[in-house]
Design brief:
heterotetramer; A: alpha+beta; 5-stranded antiparallel sheet; 3 helices; B: alpha/beta; 4 helices; binds adenosine-5'-diphosphate
Chain lengths: 151, 109, 151, 109
């Protein structure tokens, strides 16, 4: 018999999958259930699910650009319990955050919407320092209190 | 099947269903552009779309632009709540021609 | 820019959650999607989902017995690509495998069915050596080829 | 709501729905035992059960045994494919009184 490792009480779920289009379904299921576990209403959970899908598909399409690699998602309750924090970690080459920009929404053309959706649906979103040995860490926070600003 | 295309009068009707995500949107894009290749008015029924992401929306935008270039009517109808939400966030609900029902769309082509 | 870490090509999904009844929904979603990713037909995926749910609820109810702790599930393609292997890791006190036994099916009473379901639905199931610092490792393999024996 | 209980003639009918798992089965157990406390025949409609695990089955077994002890009819009906699969694996499909439809069950109490 061994000592029990103390779990992190804010953890909702940690998921590691291959960064492929086919993994996104599973990612969406996990994000949705994690949001509901955190007490979110369904529309809120659906919005977080969309935002995280968009961030993950950017990892698949841009950060890895077709190269094989894994993607790790950690969903936690915010320390104040007022929302959900999401960390998306990849092992791809380092991305220049200044290149991550959506298109002008009035210039209607295919693509360039993912970043807008993420920013419209989350109160915080951006790159943070990735741990040694990893590639990029994208961090998002969505809070329960006020509806996300509709930018 | 990804997209079910049928003919109603002089229009083609594409029924999208389920989750239109990065995995499935290339098939949706191909099916919509193929349908427009027949130069018939195209109605896209989105009533059964439970989820759509930016890649699915991009397929609709590409079909919309292709239709405009060739002056073919392109109408979305019966847009599910999930799909409307994304279009509103992307400010495309004012760009696409959106009708409440399939019959409304067919009457408009 | 850094070197990309080589991913494990057999990995379908790795999930870490709190070992609670409320986590089982998410676990089921992940197992089902992982089985479908591996190419399983839906009834096969549903069967694996049930078997893994049963093994995980045994961790919640018996291994942790109400104590807080995490549970890690790793789903992989078998090396021969003929099925899915599942590893369920906990950080609970060490379990005596000889105590893990279902009831006699002819002695109808509530409970005692989980182990039977796991054994009926999987070709392999049993405890393996847990890594240093962890509690118990339960390993299951379900193959595509022949239908699972109905014990 | 976890279990929807209604009265049909001299019988109580419990409609289970969705996923009856370790989180929800304590509520199902409680509702079934409460219904049996009224000493009316109990019919459990399982048509809307998309998933049931051993803990959900255990709730049914406990209700079955309680009903037997007090000589109250206890009938399952319209068992969904998902629920029937688990009952067969547990060899309980031959133990429970199972009827194809709610009407069949009501006619039998
Ligand atoms: N994770 C990422 N890694 C590298 N580049 C990214 C990433 N996310 C976004 N980008 C860049 O930002 C641009 C805008 O992204 P987005 O709004 O999602 O639209 P799209 O992906 O359709 O181009 C992308 O075209 C890409 O150049
Ligand atoms: N992961 C586990 N850790 C400790 N004991 C276990 C575990 N799984 C099963 N057991 C033991 O095996 C018994 C039979 O398990 P099971 O067939 O799932 O039925 P039930 O859990 O309803 O008793 C349990 O009662 C428990 O004593």
């Amino acid at each position: 018999m061994m000592a029990s490792v103390l779990p992190d009480p804010t953890l909702l779920a940690h998921l590691r999958v291959a960064a492929t289009p086919a993994s996104l379904r599973m990612i969406r299921r996990v994000v949705r259930e994690a949001a509901l576990l955190a007490g979110a209403p369904e529309p809120w959970a659906d919005d977080l699910m969309l935002a995280v899908d968009e961030a993950c598909q950017n990892v698949v399409r841009h950060a890895y650009a077709g190269q094989p690699g894994d993607l790790c998602i950690t969903l936690s309750r915010t320390p104040d319990g007022d929302g959900v924090a999401v960390e998306i970690l990849d092992f791809a080459p380092t991305v220049d955050p200044s290149q991550v920009r959506g298109r002008d929404l009035d210039d209607v053309r295919p693509g360039g919407l993912g970043v807008h959706l993420i920013e419209a649906l989350c109160e915080e979103a951006g790159f943070a320092a990735a741990p040694e040995g990893a590639g990029n860490l994208f961090r998002m926070v969505k809070r329960f209190a006020n509806a996300a600003p509709q930018r | 099947m990804t997209v079910d295309i049928s003919t109603r009068g002089n229009a083609a009707v594409a029924h999208l269903s389920g989750e239109v995500d990065l995995e499935r949107s290339p098939g949706v894009r191909r099916a919509l552009l193929d349908a427009l290749g027949r130069r018939m008015p195209l109605v896209v029924d989105l009533s059964q779309v439970s989820y759509i992401d930016s890649s699915g929306i991009a397929s609709l935008v590409e079909a919309y632009q292709t239709a405009r270039k060739q002056s073919t009517p392109f109408i979305l109808c019966a847009v599910s709540a999930a799909a409307l939400r994304v279009m509103q966030l992307a400010r495309l609900d004012k760009v696409f021609d959106i009708r409440p029902t399939l019959d409304d769309a067919l009457a408009a082509v």
